[in-house]
Amino acid sequence: CNAAPAESPTSIFHTCSKSPHVPCLINPYPPTEMDSAKRRKVGEGADKGGITVDVLESAQTDSGGILSVELVTQSPPRVGTIVVRATVRKVFVAVLAVDGRGLDRVSIRGVHEPLTTDPSAGSRHEVYRRVSVIAAEAYRYFHLQASTPASVLSQFLRWLRSYVTLFSEPCHATGRLLVMYENGQLLVPFFRAYRAAPGRVLFAPYHEPMAVQTGV
Question: What DSSP assignment string belongs to the chain?
Fold first, then answer.
Protein backbone atom coordinates (compact mmCIF):
# COMPACT_ATOMS: atom_id res chain seq x y z
CA CYS A 1 0.00 0.00 0.00
CA ASN A 2 1.36 3.45 -0.90
CA ALA A 3 -0.87 5.46 1.41
CA ALA A 4 0.76 8.18 3.47
CA PRO A 5 1.45 7.55 7.17
CA ALA A 6 -1.21 8.50 9.68
CA GLU A 7 -0.86 11.80 11.51
CA SER A 8 0.05 10.14 14.80
CA PRO A 9 3.69 8.99 14.68
CA THR A 10 2.91 6.10 17.05
CA SER A 11 0.20 4.51 14.90
CA ILE A 12 1.51 1.64 12.79
CA PHE A 13 -1.74 0.77 11.03
CA HIS A 14 -4.12 2.58 8.71
CA THR A 15 -6.97 1.60 6.43
CA CYS A 16 -5.69 0.84 2.98
CA SER A 17 -7.51 2.71 0.18
CA LYS A 18 -7.29 -0.38 -2.02
CA SER A 19 -8.94 -2.61 0.59
CA PRO A 20 -10.89 -0.32 3.00
CA HIS A 21 -11.79 -3.15 5.39
CA VAL A 22 -8.25 -4.45 5.80
CA PRO A 23 -5.82 -2.38 7.89
CA CYS A 24 -2.25 -2.35 6.62
CA LEU A 25 1.03 -1.54 8.25
CA ILE A 26 2.82 1.76 8.27
CA ASN A 27 6.46 1.97 9.27
CA PRO A 28 6.52 4.48 12.15
CA TYR A 29 10.23 5.18 11.60
CA PRO A 30 12.00 6.54 8.54
CA PRO A 31 13.44 3.80 6.30
CA THR A 32 16.97 4.92 7.08
CA GLU A 33 16.42 4.00 10.71
CA MET A 34 15.13 0.50 10.02
CA ASP A 35 17.61 -2.34 9.76
CA SER A 36 16.55 -5.40 7.77
CA ALA A 37 18.26 -7.75 10.23
CA LYS A 38 17.00 -6.14 13.41
CA ARG A 39 13.63 -4.45 13.86
CA ARG A 40 13.89 -1.52 16.23
CA LYS A 41 11.95 -1.62 19.50
CA VAL A 42 8.92 0.64 19.68
CA GLY A 43 9.88 3.35 22.16
CA GLU A 44 13.26 1.61 22.61
CA GLY A 45 14.45 -0.01 25.80
CA ALA A 46 13.30 -2.46 28.44
CA ASP A 47 11.34 0.30 30.17
CA LYS A 48 8.88 0.05 27.23
CA GLY A 49 8.26 -3.62 27.86
CA GLY A 50 10.33 -4.92 24.96
CA ILE A 51 7.33 -4.71 22.61
CA THR A 52 8.39 -4.54 18.97
CA VAL A 53 6.68 -3.62 15.73
CA ASP A 54 7.13 -7.26 14.72
CA VAL A 55 5.04 -8.46 17.67
CA LEU A 56 2.08 -6.27 16.74
CA GLU A 57 2.40 -7.05 13.04
CA SER A 58 2.55 -10.79 13.67
CA ALA A 59 -0.46 -10.76 16.01
CA GLN A 60 -2.59 -9.06 13.40
CA THR A 61 -1.38 -11.23 10.52
CA ASP A 62 -1.84 -14.51 12.42
CA SER A 63 -5.41 -13.62 13.39
CA GLY A 64 -6.70 -13.99 9.84
CA GLY A 65 -8.48 -10.64 9.94
CA ILE A 66 -10.10 -11.22 13.34
CA LEU A 67 -7.77 -8.86 15.21
CA SER A 68 -6.40 -5.44 14.39
CA VAL A 69 -3.65 -4.05 16.62
CA GLU A 70 -2.12 -0.61 16.96
CA LEU A 71 0.25 1.24 19.23
CA VAL A 72 -1.34 4.40 20.59
CA THR A 73 -0.21 7.29 22.75
CA GLN A 74 -1.38 7.28 26.34
CA SER A 75 -2.84 10.53 27.62
CA PRO A 76 -1.56 11.74 29.96
CA PRO A 77 1.75 9.97 29.19
CA ARG A 78 3.32 7.75 31.82
CA VAL A 79 7.03 7.08 31.81
CA GLY A 80 7.89 3.48 30.98
CA THR A 81 4.42 2.54 29.73
CA ILE A 82 3.05 1.90 26.26
CA VAL A 83 -0.60 1.60 25.30
CA VAL A 84 -1.77 -1.03 22.82
CA ARG A 85 -5.26 -1.01 21.33
CA ALA A 86 -6.58 -4.31 19.94
CA THR A 87 -9.92 -4.60 18.18
CA VAL A 88 -11.68 -7.94 17.96
CA ARG A 89 -13.72 -7.72 14.77
CA LYS A 90 -17.29 -6.44 15.37
CA VAL A 91 -17.11 -7.36 19.08
CA PHE A 92 -14.99 -5.07 21.27
CA VAL A 93 -11.92 -2.88 21.61
CA ALA A 94 -9.30 -3.67 24.24
CA VAL A 95 -6.94 -0.94 25.47
CA LEU A 96 -3.91 -2.18 27.40
CA ALA A 97 -1.28 -0.23 29.32
CA VAL A 98 1.86 -2.37 29.45
CA ASP A 99 5.20 -1.71 31.12
CA GLY A 100 8.33 -3.77 31.76
CA ARG A 101 6.70 -5.47 34.76
CA GLY A 102 3.56 -6.56 32.92
CA LEU A 103 0.02 -5.27 32.57
CA ASP A 104 -0.72 -1.98 34.29
CA ARG A 105 -4.36 -1.56 33.26
CA VAL A 106 -6.82 -2.94 30.69
CA SER A 107 -10.21 -1.78 29.49
CA ILE A 108 -12.66 -3.61 27.22
CA ARG A 109 -15.35 -1.56 25.48
CA GLY A 110 -17.87 -2.32 22.76
CA VAL A 111 -17.08 -1.35 19.18
CA HIS A 112 -20.13 0.95 19.25
CA GLU A 113 -18.84 2.89 22.29
CA PRO A 114 -16.70 6.03 21.84
CA LEU A 115 -13.14 5.14 20.82
CA THR A 116 -10.55 5.88 23.49
CA THR A 117 -6.86 5.44 24.24
CA ASP A 118 -7.46 5.49 28.01
CA PRO A 119 -6.94 2.02 29.55
CA SER A 120 -8.89 3.07 32.66
CA ALA A 121 -12.05 4.04 30.76
CA GLY A 122 -14.61 1.38 31.60
CA SER A 123 -17.57 0.24 29.54
CA ARG A 124 -21.19 1.03 30.35
CA HIS A 125 -22.08 -2.60 29.56
CA GLU A 126 -21.83 -5.36 32.16
CA VAL A 127 -20.49 -8.00 29.78
CA TYR A 128 -17.49 -5.88 28.74
CA ARG A 129 -16.71 -4.92 32.32
CA ARG A 130 -16.58 -8.61 33.23
CA VAL A 131 -14.38 -9.41 30.25
CA SER A 132 -12.01 -6.63 31.40
CA VAL A 133 -11.55 -8.39 34.75
CA ILE A 134 -10.91 -11.73 33.06
CA ALA A 135 -8.48 -10.12 30.61
CA ALA A 136 -6.40 -8.79 33.50
CA GLU A 137 -6.32 -12.26 35.07
CA ALA A 138 -5.35 -13.87 31.75
CA TYR A 139 -2.53 -11.39 31.18
CA ARG A 140 -1.13 -12.05 34.65
CA TYR A 141 -1.23 -15.79 33.96
CA PHE A 142 0.64 -15.40 30.65
CA HIS A 143 3.11 -13.11 32.38
CA LEU A 144 4.03 -15.95 34.76
CA GLN A 145 4.38 -18.46 31.92
CA ALA A 146 6.26 -16.51 29.25
CA SER A 147 9.91 -15.48 29.27
CA THR A 148 9.66 -12.00 27.71
CA PRO A 149 7.12 -9.15 27.67
CA ALA A 150 6.81 -9.56 23.91
CA SER A 151 5.85 -13.23 24.17
CA VAL A 152 3.38 -12.40 26.96
CA LEU A 153 1.62 -9.91 24.70
CA SER A 154 1.63 -12.37 21.79
CA GLN A 155 -0.02 -15.09 23.88
CA PHE A 156 -2.52 -12.64 25.31
CA LEU A 157 -3.57 -11.37 21.89
CA ARG A 158 -3.96 -14.94 20.65
CA TRP A 159 -6.30 -15.62 23.59
CA LEU A 160 -8.14 -12.33 23.07
CA ARG A 161 -9.11 -13.11 19.50
CA SER A 162 -11.13 -16.13 20.71
CA TYR A 163 -13.74 -13.57 21.75
CA VAL A 164 -14.79 -13.11 18.13
CA THR A 165 -17.63 -15.56 18.97
CA LEU A 166 -18.61 -13.80 22.22
CA PHE A 167 -22.24 -13.30 21.18
CA SER A 168 -22.71 -16.42 19.07
CA GLU A 169 -20.99 -19.43 20.67
CA PRO A 170 -22.79 -21.19 23.57
CA CYS A 171 -21.17 -22.27 26.82
CA HIS A 172 -18.96 -25.31 26.32
CA ALA A 173 -20.18 -26.87 29.58
CA THR A 174 -23.95 -26.27 29.39
CA GLY A 175 -24.67 -25.65 25.71
CA ARG A 176 -26.58 -22.49 26.65
CA LEU A 177 -25.96 -19.07 25.14
CA LEU A 178 -27.70 -16.95 27.79
CA VAL A 179 -27.73 -17.39 31.57
CA MET A 180 -29.37 -15.21 34.24
CA TYR A 181 -26.78 -13.81 36.65
CA GLU A 182 -27.16 -12.65 40.24
CA ASN A 183 -27.84 -9.06 39.18
CA GLY A 184 -30.80 -10.17 37.06
CA GLN A 185 -29.02 -9.71 33.73
CA LEU A 186 -28.95 -12.27 30.95
CA LEU A 187 -25.34 -12.64 29.82
CA VAL A 188 -23.51 -14.62 27.17
CA PRO A 189 -20.59 -16.94 28.14
CA PHE A 190 -17.99 -14.20 28.58
CA PHE A 191 -15.21 -16.35 30.06
CA ARG A 192 -12.59 -17.82 27.70
CA ALA A 193 -10.29 -20.51 29.13
CA TYR A 194 -6.67 -19.33 29.11
CA ARG A 195 -5.07 -22.27 30.96
CA ALA A 196 -4.58 -25.71 29.42
CA ALA A 197 -5.45 -28.72 31.62
CA PRO A 198 -6.99 -32.21 31.28
CA GLY A 199 -10.71 -32.00 30.56
CA ARG A 200 -10.50 -28.34 29.71
CA VAL A 201 -10.83 -26.85 26.24
CA LEU A 202 -8.41 -23.98 25.73
CA PHE A 203 -10.04 -20.72 24.56
CA ALA A 204 -13.50 -22.32 24.86
CA PRO A 205 -16.42 -20.17 26.11
CA TYR A 206 -17.89 -20.67 29.57
CA HIS A 207 -20.40 -18.90 31.75
CA GLU A 208 -18.61 -17.65 34.85
CA PRO A 209 -20.20 -20.09 37.35
CA MET A 210 -19.28 -23.01 35.10
CA ALA A 211 -15.77 -21.60 34.74
CA VAL A 212 -15.37 -21.73 38.50
CA GLN A 213 -16.81 -25.25 38.75
CA THR A 214 -14.57 -26.64 36.00
CA GLY A 215 -11.49 -24.77 37.19
CA VAL A 216 -10.83 -22.97 33.95
Answer: --PPPPSSTT--EEE-SSSTTSEEE--SS-GGG-BTTBPPBTT-SGGGTT-BHHHHHHHHHHTTTSEEEEEE--SS--TTEEEEEEEETTTEEEEEEEETTEEEEEEEEETTSPP---TT---SSHHHHHHHHHHHHHHHHHHHH-SSHHHHHHHHHHHHGGGGGTTTSPPTTT--S-EE-TTS-EE---EE--S--TT--TT-EE-HHHHHHHT-
Q: What pLDDT, in 10s, does the model give residues 140-190?
A: 999 998 878 888 988 999 999 999 999 999 999 899 999 999 888 899 999
pLDDT digits (tens, 9 = 90+) for 43-68: 444 334 467 777 788 888 888 889 99
pTM value is: 0.73
